Amino acid sequence: xxxxxxKTLPGFGISLGVTMSYVSFIVLIPMFSLALESADLGxxxxxxxxxxxRTLAAIRVSFLCSLAxxxxxxxxxxxxxxxxxxxxxxxxxxxDGLIELPFALPTAVxxxxxxxxxxxxxxxxxxxxxxxxxxxxxxxxxxxxxTFVTIPFVARAVQPVLERLSPDLEEAGLLLGAGRARIFLxxxxxxxxxxxxxxxxxxFARGLGEYGSVIFIAGNKPFSTEIVPLIxxxxxxxxxxxxxxxxxxxxxxxxxxxxxxxxxxxxxxALFAGEK
Amino acid sequence: MYVELSGINKSFGSxxxxxxxxxxLAEGTLGALLGPSGSGKTxxxxxxxxxxxxxxxxxxxGGVRVNDVRPSQRGVGFVFQNYALFRYMTVxxxxxxxxxxxxxxxxxxxxxxxELLALVNMEGLEKxxxxxxSGGQRQRVAFARALAPSPRLLLLDEPFAAIDAxxxxxxxxxxxxMIDRLRITSIFxxxxxxxxxxVADQIIITNxxxxxxxxxxxxxxxxxxxxxxxxxxGDSQVLEGYGRLVGFGGAPPDGQCAIxxxxxxxxxxxxxxxxxxxxxxxxxxxxxxxxxxxxxxxxVKEFAxxxxxxxxxxxxxxxxxxxxxxxxxxxxxxxxxxxVNNDRLASLGNGYNFAI
Amino acid sequence: MAYVRExxxxxxxxxxxxxxxxxxxxxxxxxxxxxxxxxxxxIKPFWEAVSDEYSVKAARLSALTAILAVLLNTFFGIxxxxxxxxxxxxxxxxxITIIDIPFAVSPVIAGLVFVMTFGRLGWAYPFLQEHDLKIxxxxxxxxxxxxxxxLPFVAREIIPVLAAxxxxxxxxxxxxxxxxxxxxxxxxxPHIRWALLYGIILCxxxxxxxxxxxxxxxxxxxxxxxxxxxxxxxxxxxxxTLQSFSVATILVIVxxxxxxxxxxxxxxxxxxxxxxxx
Lengths: 276, 356, 278
Fold this sequence. Notes:
With 276 residues, chain A is an all-alpha fold. Chain A is built from twelve helices and one strand. Chain B is elongated. Chain B has two domains: 223 residues, 3-Layer(aba) Sandwich (Rossmann fold), CATH 3.40.50; 114 residues, CATH 2.40.50.140. Strand 1 of chain A pairs antiparallel with strand 1 of chain C, so a sheet runs across the interface.
């Protein structure tokens, strides 16, 4: 990390020194310890531990529930962003502010509240229970919890893009004879698609790792409502550090792949933004 | 008349963007909506397109009232100020957009887009995205996109504003040539009087939401109807109390007028003056080279005037005392303007009558 | 309003209704549930639960970890933003990626990496034993895990603001003889103060509420390594629902205060930006 100090400004050494020591101590060395531990396992051992049938079942649950939640939030996030940006109505600001709630509310609080709410005797759970549908302690419960904590991602990614979208584009489409549906699909959607995809990916990634809100509502039955972070947690509690590490590494790889994808989406979107 | 606006009013909250706007434009001509920013010209254009609806008044295109016709059914092509190209579509898809809205057959679209690409000299660039084009190229794509569905009326909002000065001149004459070739009725919005005068057949001057005057560029230049037009068109200067100038004694004491550089003739120092008793004493206070002639700043009594001076007319330097002749001025009479000739030069007749 | 945007009729009505229903069901109802459970039997049991010895201890520990995490991450965020936006150096892209890592990592894994470093099997364990230091299942572990999870917040908010602003003002200050300290306080800080405050608010919110990461490193020693969220978990698991929701109410109030503060900071910051840009 050799410096090319080109500016006249002071403080390069100290600011970079502080930054590098800090990230090394907080992020790099601990992450490295994890890698070190997994290296001891060897590839075969790693694979055996990371893919036992119970873990595979948990991966399936985590994947499907996060996907469902991310899709739900893509639809409603887009609707929320659209409504807030395009329409003026009472309590608009309140809705705008409340969207952030899941970021401010501790996940454990969300977890216990959603659990009581959707339990068979809860306000929401009761009518469903009458119909024979179980919300809490089932996969639907997991989806509800993940949906709650990832509400802000899509809405907050799309909102600024919608705000900046020039009305000229829609007017041009209108004058060229396009109907509302075609204007939305052909003109607006391509403009907001990178943001939509970014929001979706971030929500999905967060869903895969979410722990606090899910464990209360999930019921945590092995092979049915157990999520990956919980596997890691329970292996840790059994002092099975090897398997906890193996599963964690697998999850990390998935998270980094998503992060990388988001980066690519944003770079690509920036390419088109040349006009403005 | 092809485009006809009568009694148009439009307000945005407390701001009145159009007040009783009426004008007509003949088929096949190029009209310019000229005015300072905030004068309502863009609003008028957008109302013709149907992007805004007037609070009162009628808009007719081809003799038919279009107030209630949806924008897409009005048959207008619109070139936006910043072009509003769809940046996620290629040049081809941008131009084809309107045709696809009409569900035109594929072969027809291919053919028409090809025609337009040739028309705007963009062949071979149809696979590019707007982000990869220069400003001038984007403007031509925007133009082609507006023309693709064969509109009967072409509207352009400040078509040259986003382009740097060098390219702008070329584009102006290119656009003029293109519209002549296509014989399509067009209206463009501009705040640049030189641009309007150079390009348009008919100019509609707007100010504060009102139409001040309409006419050919020459008519507006020669016979401004209101003080605003007299001031706005040409390099006019406004004088107060011009009755103190030699030859304009009939003016009211605080009379205002506009005067143009070409109304003033500077007699080279040392040369005999033809109409000695009609001439004013002046002092040269500044000299600037303006390409083919000199711009002379003059002090006459308490007035500061600007006049042109041919490079062939002999040496002139700052501080020189010279004689000048003022042929005529545009006298403001309330909301009207009257051309007033120098009464001591009356024998010369009105030399300001010529025809093109 | 222009033609395109003056949308009336069904689409508008349906979309607004859907938004209201979604927000009511997904956001307001859970909040109402917390309050309703907490005050099920009036204010007295609520107050008893909140003022319970262990609740107060948990609140203190939460506050301590949050304050430490916010302080250190703020200091780090400023240093990182200064280095990244003011100088060109090799590996900058890599550094930016590292700063983002905590956003991408599951909280449970965030806790796990510290267990693997300082825990019984960690390579640093012998050293810690020798010097009689305890990190895992102790307060330092909680603080470390919280710092890890909230590391990007402040840096992420101020980096774009500093990057967008260019360096000419600072260069001018330095040319006129100002040192690093003065340049930062007098020239740079006024530009980034709202972004900084915004980042601090986000950082505090997450630090107060972090559950997964601290859960891994805490060992759940009641009265010693229990933060508020962990305390809520234990109460809930032991079927002390009312107590659990009463403590949760405190965090709901904090969350709402944070939302309001955030909103105010955003508005004031935007107004000020408009004022100075003019």
